[in-house]
Amino acid sequence: MTSSVSISDIQKAAVRIGPYVHRTPVLTCSSINRLVDAEVFLKCENFQKTGAFKFRGACNAVFSLSESQAARGVVTSSSGNHAQAVALAARLRGIKAFVAMPETAPRVKKVAVAGYGAKIYFCEWTMEALDATAARVAEETGAVFVEPFNAPETIAGQGTAALELLQDVANLDVVMAPVGGGGLLAGTAIAVSGFSPATRVVGAEPATADDACQSLKEGRIVPARPPKTIADGLRTSLGDLTFAVIRSHVGQIVTASEEAIVAAMRYVWERAKIIIEPSAAVPIASLLEKRQEVLGQRIGIILSGGNVDLDCLPWAIGSAHE
After folding, report:
1. Active site residues
2. Of the chain's two ends, which shows fewer C-beta atoms within 10 Å, N or C?
3. What range defines the domain where residue 90 resides?
4. Is the pLDDT at 322 greater than 50, yes or no?
5. pLDDT per residue as tens digits for the range 135-175
6. Is residue 124 helix, strand or coil?
C-alpha cells in the first residue's frame, strides 16, 4: 500500500477516539433513491461533535500526542471545521489551542471555535497566509501543529467514519466522500480497500475547484487555483500523503456545478430533513448531474458536515456565495 497509514492504524484510531466521538447514524431517504435510481446510504457526520467528520482526525491527532508535547498546546490552520475540531479536542485533553482562520470563514464556524476556547488569529483566505500565520503562532507559543489533512494521525482518524459505515451497511458498490485536502477521502479509501475491496471509492468536488480531479488525471498534485465555490471546506489542495493514497485507491473523482450543489443541499434539507453544509452536498450533487453510472447500485455517502450560517443560506435572496 502506498501510504504511511494502514488499516491497523484506522482500527487503533477507532479505539483511541471511541470515548470522545459520536458513532453517527446511517440514514436513508426513499425520495433520494428514486431521484438517482440507486440505494443511497447517508453516513451522517453532520451529527458528529463539532458538526463535522473533522473531529475524528483532530481527536486522534491530539490524543496521540505525548504528555510533553500536549503540555505545549496545539495550533492549526483551518477555514472552520478542522478549527472547531482541534479546539474541542484540546479542551477535552485540557490543553491550549491556537487557530489561524480566514477572515471570510462562515460566522457560525468562527463563533464555534471561540466557544470551544481556542484563541483565533485571523488572516487572508490563502494557503500561504494561513500557513504563515500558524507557523508564526507556533514559534511564539511553542505549540504543536495539528495538520488539517496531510498527516497519518489525521488520515487514520478520518478513516474511522468509513469503517463504521462498512460495519453498518454490507455489500456497498460505491463509497463516496467529498475531497478538499483529501484527508477524508484518503482515510475512506484505506478503510474500504481493507475491509471491502470490491467496493469502489469515488471522490467528489466542485467543478470550480477541481484540482483533485485534475491531479488524479495528470498523476501529479495540481495546486488549487483561487477557488470560487460555495463549498468552503473543499478549497484546499491535496497533500503529498493524501494524494499518494488517492492515486492508489480511488477509482474516480467526479465534479458538481455550483447550481447542483445548492440544489442538492436544499433537497436533503427538505426531503431527508437533514441539515448539511455545501461541502457535504457535493457527492449528492454529482449524482443529480449523472456524473457517474450508478443505476441500481448501493452507494454509501459520507455527509461530511452540517455547519451552516443560517443568516446566509445559499437559496435565500441576497445570500453571498464567495
Report:
1. 54, 304
2. C
3. 55-145
4. no
5. 999 999 999 999 999 999 999 999 999 999 999 999 999 99
6. coil
